[in-house]
Amino acid sequence: MATTKAFVLIETAVGKTRDVVMALNRVKGVASVDVVTGPYDIIAVLEADDLNSVGDLVTGKIHTVSGIVRTVTCLAVSGH
Asked: Residue 11 in contact with residue 65, Cβ under 8 Å?
């Protein structure tokens, strides 16, 4: 079965990036977490069985992490 992949661009509160990274690394379905430069602080890659599962992961597990100010979710439409 194909996996649905999404990239979540995350803006964190000042001084909270490290705490958010640690919390995200404990979430099932989060394939990777990287601290980046630019307008966002973190990019997380999510992998789930389908689009609904990605949505549940973002709203139920990502948005509830303390220190996250804003997210933008980008669904991957193709990959190798």
From this structure: no
- Give the number of domains in the chain: 1
Evaluate whether residue 13 is within a structural domain. Answer: yes
pLDDT at 3: 87
Percent of the chain with pLDDT over 90: 91
- Domain assignment present for residue 80? The answer is no
Domain range holding 20?
4-75
DSSP string, 39-66: S-SEEEEEEESSHHHHHHHIIIIITTST
Q: Would you state the pLDDT for residue 79?
A: 63
